[in-house]
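Weekly sync, protein design subgroup
Attendees: M.S., D.O., the rotation student, P.L. (late)

Item 1: inverse folding check
M.S. brought a backbone from last month's batch and wanted to see whether the design step gives back something sensible before we order anything. D.O. pointed out we never logged the input encoding, so this time it goes straight into the notes. Structure tokens as presented (185 positions):
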């Protein structure tokens, strides 16, 4: 049940980045990123935990057991990956990276948790198919068939591979990078 709750929160929480990235002026968006990262870092470092018990209770409601010593660490990686994507690849490409992370990773986790049977590098093959199809379907109307297919496929491989880096950091960067390349070259 925890993984289902986490993945629904993941999908909704990360998707929210599309709004400020799309509509905030550049300086306000940079300020928003810095504020979110600063607050996220305070949570990971457990600063003010005693005074903010309700917030920490909410965070631990969505946190895996292995991350309880550093609550919010995966959110920090996601926010950092999205921020770096924006700085390097710009608004449009960052939105692609956000959607890849939000939808692909969430559906991979949901389907993998509920239906995953066949494992590859510790991940379920069913979850990987869900990553690909959900990413492809959400990106298709925005960036077209060819680009959606390429980004969904590469994103699926990045999510599936047993990399040392957290996929919450790598997926928005990979999605934004690929979109930037496909759009400009």
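Designed sequence read out in the meeting:
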């Amino acid at each position: 049940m925890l993984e289902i709750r986490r993945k629904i929160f993941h999908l909704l929480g990360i998707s929210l980045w599309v709004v400020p990235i799309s509509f905030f002026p550049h300086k306000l968006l940079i300020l928003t990123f810095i504020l979110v990262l600063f607050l996220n870092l305070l949570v990971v470092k457990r600063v003010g935990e005693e005074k903010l018990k309700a917030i920490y209770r909410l965070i631990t409601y969505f946190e895996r057991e292995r991350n309880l010593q550093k609550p919010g660490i995966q959110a920090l990686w996601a926010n950092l990956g999205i921020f770096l994507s924006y700085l390097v690849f710009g608004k449009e490409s960052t939105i692609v990276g956000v959607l890849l992370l939000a939808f692909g990773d969430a559906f991979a986790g949901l389907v993998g948790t509920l239906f995953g049977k066949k494992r590859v590098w510790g991940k379920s093959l069913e979850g990987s198919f869900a990553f690909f199809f959900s990413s492809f379907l959400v990106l298709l109307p925005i960036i077209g068939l060819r680009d959606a297919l390429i980004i969904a496929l590469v994103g699926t491989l990045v999510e599936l591979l047993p990399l040392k880096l957290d996929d919450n950091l790598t997926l928005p960067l990979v999605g934004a990078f690929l979109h930037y390349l496909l759009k400009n070259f």
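Discussion: The CA atoms of residues 10 and 91 lie 21 Å apart. The two ends are 44 Å apart (CA to CA).
Action: P.L. to compare against the previous round before Friday.
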